Amino acid sequence: MVSVAIxxxxxxxxxxxxxxxxxxxxxxxxxxxxxxxxxxxARGSGYGDSSQGNGRNGGPWxxxxxxxxxxxGGPLGxxxxxxGRRDGGYPPGEQPTAVTVQWESALxxxxxxxxxxxxxxxxxxxxxxxEYVIAVIGLPKSGFSQGSANSSGDDSDxxxxxxxxxxxxxxxxxxxxxxxxxxxxxxxxxARTIFHFEKSEPITLHDKDTEFRITADRMExxxxxxxxxxxxxxxxxx
Length: 238
Prior knowledge:
Blueprint lengths: L1 H7 L12 H9 L4 E5 L1 E2 L56 E6 L3 H10 L14 E7 L3 H4 L10 H14 E5 L2 E3 L3 E6 L4 E7 L10 E7 L3 E8 L4 E2 L2 E2 L2
Antiparallel strand pairs: 1-3, 2-10, 3-4, 4-8, 5-6, 5-9, 7-8, 9-10, 11-12
Helix pairs in contact: 2-3
């Protein structure tokens, strides 16, 4: 455990210009700004109702694995590892998956992207963005679209999905709930989905945490980020 702790903090103790490829990978994949999270799926034969789902115990959302859990014996029963169930498995055609939720506007992430693309990571040269930008890497689009059965697979489907995601996506900070002002699909080499949020009221450490959530009829993605972990060079970076 000691070696893991030392490795996980190595990028924090060095000049970004000196970050190694391992440092860059960690920042972009497993850091306070980049977290992997399972996509959860609604219980019930109708695969859930977004008006009921809040992701808490007893709600319509199950774990992001078939059968409701790896042998946990939860309310879906059995804890199976294979086929989904009519009363609470994955919708037809959907597979269990994990996505990465990443604060793309955070300075460490921006610096790591520069390093990943062969550039020089110079924190002093980077100006703060005037918005919060969060990316979801690996978003299963069919699970969050409306009327997917009638989709044609063209650009108009992506436009409708982007508009729908603007409605069902929320960034929660304290009592404030922000919907994205813009959603971009199929961005970058990993075809990420990018959510832009207005920076009307600055998020501070007093807010304690922030939660990103996408809630559709059949699926949900939600991830909470403790703000105390998101400081870089003595400053909260989002």
